[in-house]
Amino acid sequence: MKFSLANLNWAKLITNRSRRAIANPKTPILFLSGLLLTSAFPQVVSGQILGDNTLPNSTLVNTAITPTGTLHQIQGGTTVGSNLFHSFSQFNVLLNETAYFNNIATISNIITRVTGGQLSHINGRILANGAANLFLINPSGIIFGENAQLAIGGSFFASTADSVVFADGSFYSATIPNTPLLTVSVPVGLQLGANPGSIINRSRASSLIVPNRLVGLEVLPSQTLALIGGDLQLEGGYLTTLGGTIQLASAANGQFKLNGDNSGLQTLRNINLSNGAIVDASGLGGGSVQLFGEQISLTQRSRLISDTFGNFDGRGIEIQGTQLQLDNTSYISTSTFGTGNAGSLRIHTDVVDLQGKTPFEVTQQLLDFTFNPLNLSNGLYSLSLGSGAGGQIEIDTKRLFMNNGANILTTAIFDGSGGNITIEASEFAELDNGSLIVTGTVGSGNAGNLLVRGGQIRVLNGTSLSTTPAASSSGKGGDIRAIADTLEINGTPDNAPVPGGLFTTTLGLAEAGNLSVSANRLIVTNGAQISAASSGAAQGGAIDVTAESIELSGLSHDGQFLSGIFSSTSLLTVSGQPGNANAGNLTVNATRVRVKDGAQISVATGNAGAAGTLKINATESIEVSGFATGVDPKVEAVSFGIIGDGIVPSAIESNTNSSGAAGDLNLQTKRLSVSNGAEVGVRGTSNGAAGDLVVQANSIRLNNRGTLSATTNSGTGGNIRLQASDIVMRDNSRIATDAGNVDGGNIEIETEVLVAQGNSDITANAKQGRGGRVLISARTILGARFREYLTPENDITATSELGAEFSGFVDIQTLNVNPTAGLRELPTDTIDPSNRIASGCTTYAQSRFSITGRGGLPQNPTASLPGQTVWRDMQSFSTATKPRTFAATPQSSSTPQESISPDLVEANSWTINEKGNVELVAHHSPGMVQGSRFSPPKC
């Protein structure tokens, strides 16, 4: 179906006819073929409508048989001001019967009560003169049959309340019928008792306004149709008004205000729409639909509708209660098909439960360009199918459930803008199994924004939250904001058309929206993604993530989708033309970031546009570890690359596989760990320039093939700058700025300690260009050294396959300290203390025997100290700083001489000095007394 305002002529005709009827209030609004009302009735019979004689002026019922059925003409009653009061002991209108309130034109309200204690059956017609409002009050209950009809000019209120409340505080009671009517006032509310009866509506009667249209109970435009009572059941029944108001309230022990805020109703009851029930307030301007209840359910193709077809703005739908539940065949809509803006859909319940029919059903239609909003069958909608703006969808709940392809949509189809979606789930939201929340745009209008806020938000098994403009759209995509204590985005099912997650993708000329996440804990796993991508010529959106803890891991079970956070552009637009859009920036602020098992944080470009900048600030740690296996080959286009046999490393990266430049990658953290084949870096696989990798950390740990890289094929080489207190490389780890057909990139390292073990290398090599520059400033370097080529050792190289004359430049500045200076080799044999202690000695008085070092003690108690035995103090090292510069071949550097003090030796003689004192000396000379050999002590 093609939409145009020409399709709205029927609505204008209905409105005009309705206005003509209201303009002549003296004429009963019958619209009944063949029904003739006269002042004389051919036959009077005993009917189902009986007055109770409780009013000063009693209600009179005259019943007559006519060719079209039974007519009950209701006259008399008590008039107070513009209010006409009727009181019945029974009020039943059976099939082919008509209850006609023959009021005068000056009556504003016809207030009718039923006092007999029996419920009322309405399966015929209720009529009144002029524009009078009609109140039908029966505390025992009311049932509207399939043929129940209304033909009144005013509003209709059917209620099982005990009484009608007036502005001056007086009331008209159905349970205390003898209450006097002393004042003149207007009704303002309905007072519900402790156990009000139920109201059931099964009416599917034809319209008396629009021929051949099933409307059930219907009132004219601008009027109100209300069912107020205990449990409300619409068992296939319809409620209709063209742009008017429909109110459904199920409660007890409270007052329902006719024109006020009813959010204070405490004791709520249930409202059930089943078997294709429809509540419809659509019109030139969508009307107002209000529901107040405890358990509110729509099942078996039931609908709440308040669509706009003309140039008036819609008023929308409001639902308040404890729980709202929609099954997989029912929906709620506040869309616009005209120039007027759609009304909003507002839901305030403790629980919202939406069930879908088929996972990914609408998602696949959007991808195939077969989406038809007229075929929507389940969910919440506020679409723009004209030039008017779509309405807002607001959900305020404690717990939100969406399952099995359930939908919440505010898509703009033509020129109008899409509405915003706001979801507040104070406890948790569980969005599961291919469900969809979209504020997209297909035409020239902008998409709406999407806000999801809650305690715990779980986006599971392929569920998508998206503000994606279609390829044909020129409107801007909306922004996404997700705020939660815990945000878990988990899983993409096998053969899913798209991954699950949060997306601000643009497919054409429309600029993508931005995406922000704020959470204490963010989990993205099993192929789920957070993505701001551009597949066209428009700018990609920015991503901003703030969290205490971020955990990214794994891929989908079928290997089609990696988990992670991505900002990217595609090689081709949807139309197949080369794209030139820039990707948005990606910023992460966290305490801890962990990326493992093939997950990635990535900014990438696949076209002539540049990739965005990737910045991660993690106050405690960044950990990148492991890889994924069994990856689908197409994943390479958006990942750090398949490294063989379907293996993709875990990575934090900026990547270009086209002519566009890769963005810079900046990491700032206390501790950076890259291990088990994971990579952190910038990369260019085509002719695009690689960006720069900058890391500021207290410590950097590369273990078991952990890599920091800035590599490129044909584009300008990337650079690496590292600032850290210590850098430790183990087991084939690498720091590399290698290049293919261009010069290698540069490496700058500033650290206190650099340690390399197990064939770990620092390289700035090139294949068909010059080697890069390696500048290292460190207090100490252990294990690594400059070499002209790679070896199984720990190498620092800047070579070129073109030859030594194309080698790069290596400059290493260290404090020239020999770490082995002053060390002495210890004996390998274990000391046997029995050989060191004289057997004649005994232990007493807590005695002990200790050996420190090698000097100062003979090899056994019977031996004397050899002359060469010395005691040597530890010396303080002298230090000197001298740069070492390497070009094609390493240059030697001299080691500063160690300052050596005279050795202290053991005295072996003694002498008497000029003062007569005895001195111990180490060398024998004339006049000295030679010390004798020690003999075993006698102790």
List keywords for this structure.
939 residues, mainly beta, 20-stranded parallel β-sheet, 2% helix, 41% strand, elongated, disordered N terminus, disordered C terminus
Task: Give a topology summary.
Elements: H1 9-23, E1 49-51, E2 59-66, E3 69-76, E4 78-80, E5 83-91, E6 97-101, E7 109-114, E8 120-122, E9 125-128, E10 133-137, E11 142-144, E12 149-151, E13 156-159, E14 163-166, E15 171-173, E16 187-192, E17 199-201, E18 217-219, E19 224-229, E20 232-235, E21 238-241, E22 245-252, E23 254-257, E24 267-268, E25 271-274, E26 278-280, E27 288-298, E28 303-305, E29 316-326, E30 331-333, E31 345-355, H2 361-368, E32 379-381, E33 393-403, E34 407-409, E35 421-431, E36 436-438, E37 450-460, E38 464-466, E39 480-490, E40 501-503, E41 515-525, E42 529-534, E43 543-553, E44 564-569, E45 586-596, E46 600-605, E47 614-625, E48 627-628, E49 648-649, E50 651-656, E51 665-675, E52 679-684, E53 693-703, E54 707-712, E55 720-730, E56 734-736, E57 747-756, E58 761-763, E59 773-782, E60 785-786, E61 795-797, E62 809-814, E63 870-871, E64 884-886, E65 904-905, E66 909-912, E67 918-921, E68 929-930
Parallel strand pairs: 3-6, 5-7, 6-9, 7-10, 8-11, 9-12, 10-13, 11-17, 13-19, 17-20, 18-21, 19-22, 20-25, 21-26, 22-27, 25-27, 26-28, 27-29, 28-30, 29-31, 30-32, 31-33, 32-34, 33-35, 34-36, 35-37, 36-38, 37-39, 38-40, 39-41, 40-42, 41-43, 42-44, 43-45, 44-46, 45-47, 46-50, 47-51, 50-52, 51-53, ...
Antiparallel strand pairs: 1-5, 2-3, 4-5, 14-15, 14-16, 16-23, 22-24, 48-49, 62-64, 63-65, 66-67, 66-68
